[in-house]
Amino acid sequence: MSDLPDALATLLGPAGLLTDPADIAPALSDWRGLYRGAALAVLRPASTQQVADCVRICAEAGIAIVPQGGNTSMVGGATPEGNGRSVVLSLARMNRIRDIDAVDMTMTAEAGVVVKAAQDAAAEANCLFPLSFGGEGTAMIGGILSTNAGGNTTVRYGNARELMLGLEVVLPDGQVWNGLRRLRKDNTGYALRHLFVGAEGTLGIITAATLRLFARPRASEVLFCSVADEDAALAVFRRFREADETAIRAFEYMSGLGVDFAVKHIPGVALPLAQRADHYILVDLASTRADADLQGLAEQVLGAAMEAGEVLDAVIGGSEARRAALWRIREEHPEAQRKEGASVKNDVSVPVSKVPELIRRASAACGRLIPGIRPVPFGHMGDGNIHMNLEQPEGMDPAAFLARSHDIMETVNAVVRELDGSFSAEHGIGRLKTDMMESWRGGAELDAMRRIKAALDPTGIMNPGKVLP
Length: 469
Ligand code: MLT
Ligand code: ZN
What we know:
By secondary structure, the protein is an alpha+beta fold. It has 3 domains: about 1-215 and about 435-469, Uridine Diphospho-n-acetylenolpyruvylglucosamine Reductase, domain 3; about 220-335, Alpha-Beta Plaits (2-Layer Sandwich), CATH 3.30.70.2190; about 340-430, Alpha-Beta Plaits (2-Layer Sandwich). Helices cover about 35% and strands about 20% of the residues. The strands form 4 sheets. Strands 12, 13, 14, 15, 16, 17, 18 and 19 form an 8-stranded antiparallel sheet that branches. Strands 5-6-10-8-9 form a 5-stranded antiparallel sheet. It has a 4-stranded mixed sheet with strand order 1-2-4-3, sandwiched between helices. The longest helix has 15 residues, at about 230-245. Bound molecules: D-malate and zinc ion (ZN). Zinc ion binds next to β18. The site of D-malate has 9 residues, from α12 and β19. InterPro entries: FAD-bd_oxidored_4_C (IPR004113), FAD-bd_PCMH (IPR016166), FAD-bd_PCMH-like_sf (IPR036318), FAD-bd_PCMH_sub1 (IPR016167), FAD-bd_PCMH_sub2 (IPR016169), FAD-linked_Oxase-like_C (IPR016164), FAD-oxidored/transferase_4 (IPR051264), Oxid_FAD_bind_N (IPR006094). One of its GO terms (molecular function) is catalytic activity.
């Protein structure tokens, strides 16, 4: 506390500066409980100028800054290290939507706007902000851009990067860069805005963003199907793409075990089919045309897929409540896995064509590593991003299982590498995966990243210990 410059208290006042250990505790650990750090304080600036002033004061005092939004990181990217010479800078009070334009189809939102609030504001303007994932009720705009979040609708609308037109960023020396342009075409030198997306707060602090909006779907339909195997799941995806690529809003894969866990642990979740299977898919269809016959499209594709033996059984959503119930089976996967015991997450991607091989080979390899290990692959099959998660063997000591995390991740990653994939698809690097950067991105790529970091943040005060090894 004595290390904290008095200027911060003067700048932020009591509402903007937390130093009581009980008050700052929630900001020091991640929701998965993987990391617990230390910090001098939590700064809660309420404006871009206050963020800039905080950065300048901390830079002068040599205090590191850990930007934090909703603190939903899967990889420990938003919590401080253990040494305590740092502050957490929370963007939560910067939660204004500055502008929505239904002609330009843009929204300018501050970093602390919760994703769900951005979705709701877009809907009120009769538009769509399409980014959607399990943590959307807590995660914030600054965080989803800093991690280039993906989620369920990437197959149709792209990742956070593709939804971003402009940024406002406080640089590590306290300068404010106002790049909140709302242009679809803007070729004026280096596309700086893209540098900060996915940088996980290591190059500066995103304080606001101009985001793309889309026409709101007027028809939608959700299907939940059991399928013969992983190849069948992919075959059904191709059938939908051929029938009407624009109608696919999400295409998700789930294993039998993952669905079993959801049914077992989550009150209100039930299997909507008569028989259990080893593989399932959830298909979300949407159209901006109110008269689009999505049920007809679904029936046509399912008919052919059943005849080919790919789809075993299927249910088509119907009412809004029923569709939400089908989505819950998928969305509750992380929580159900948590309740089942210890699990190791592997957020990986491969070319879409190789998803079936990834699931099969990684599951088998992990089974050889730890007999009885329970693979629970699920996720965004339509964009090649599978959460190749592994649940502890029944009855094994959770701590003993987690002690093998590194071996498990390496085992999965060896398969991912052979399939030309990536060791981090949508969760980012954070602290969890920094030690993998050298072997995956070493050489010219990592060298260029380090030089960019050194140029923008020469003293290394921005989110130290994250991304770069
Ligand atoms: C999800 O898609 O539900 C999360 O990104 C996944 C996870 O728990 O690994
Ligand atoms: Zn995901």
